[in-house]
Amino acid sequence: MSLDVVHITRMNRKPVFQVPAKSVLNLKSGFRHKLLCDGPTFTAGTACAYSCTFCYVEDIMKKSPHLSSVKKEYAEQFPTEGEPRHADIVIRRHGALAALRNQLTLRGKPRFADPNDHRVLYMSPLVDVAANRELLDETIEACKLILDLTHWQIRILSKSNMLPHLARRLDTYSHHQPKERIIYGVSTGTIDNKLAKAFEIGTALVSRRIEALHWLQDHGYRTFGMICPSLPYESVEQYLQFSETVCRAIRVDRCEHVWAEVMNVRGESFLRTEEALMNTGYPGPARLLKRAHEDKEYWEQYSRTTFLAHTKYVPAHKLRFLQYVTATTRSWWTAHVDHGAVLLT
């Protein structure tokens, strides 16, 4: 399948490719199992403007029908660079807003007009929705369409510090109650700016994200927490200190819910993050992450200790700790569902 629009510009210093956008709305997303939505998700891209080492999208998009065309165009544009990594490029869906409108309407009328349909939609499962001003503008227009054509709520997650700009601009849509229908969150796997920069490439400083979250909370917007990915530590005391510090930073009492997760084991996420930590002066965390990657029992211990630490600082009705389970580990996690464990397979 050829591209509608080829490499045309750069975004966050990366070449941009655009592929046809026949569908940007998934009504039955697996993110429902993570409790982040009630099924619907929206995404206007396939490769993010950020370059986080732990990103799982490359692994799940390997079978995308557009990748061969993107790689071919990349080779023509950059003949000396070799095959691009997922993190080297931005892939956007050309005509995303038109595709969204089309999916939300039938013969020009809203498909989801039931005033009692208050499902939560999550944006975005694949790319950051506010990695720069251009993407922020696109997200605002997408939110307007969803507010116009449905009665859904919208959950927005970002590693940007620009969510207050999004919130203020959507306030002009007050007749559709954006302040009541949109829930904002920022990712905070650590609150150490320097450590975060080792594996979250190109994102806003964590301190700036927390400032943005506090602004939203102080001005009456709905918010949620997202503590992930979090690294392993040497001792139980360090896990507890980490949880207490990050929970205080995101102000758990002002968050509707708090999601948390350790490193997502997909593709080469562990290897890339280990290498990044080692190359930026963090041999200790790199060594522990390597051990978690190679030793399943240690990875399980790391997950359980992180979870138990969070149960000390996040009320059970708010905590949503995402954990991939096996036949061997399922029983332990099932026993902790009432404390906030969310079992994934």
Describe the fold and architecture.
There is one protein chain. With 345 residues, the protein is of the alpha/beta class. A seven-stranded parallel sheet has the order 9-10-11-12-13-14-15. Strands 1-2-6-5 form a four-stranded mixed sheet, with no helix packed on it. β9, α4 and β10 form a beta-alpha-beta unit. It is globular, with a radius of gyration of 20 Å.
What is the general shape? globular
**Percent of residues in helical segments?**
25-40%
> Which structural class do you get from the secondary structure elements?
alpha/beta
Rg, Å, rounded = 20 Å
Number of helices: 13
Give the strand line-up of the largest sheet: 9-10-11-12-13-14-15
The unreliable regions are none
CATH architecture: Alpha-Beta Horseshoe
Largest sheet: 7 strands, parallel
| First-to-last CA distance | 32 Å
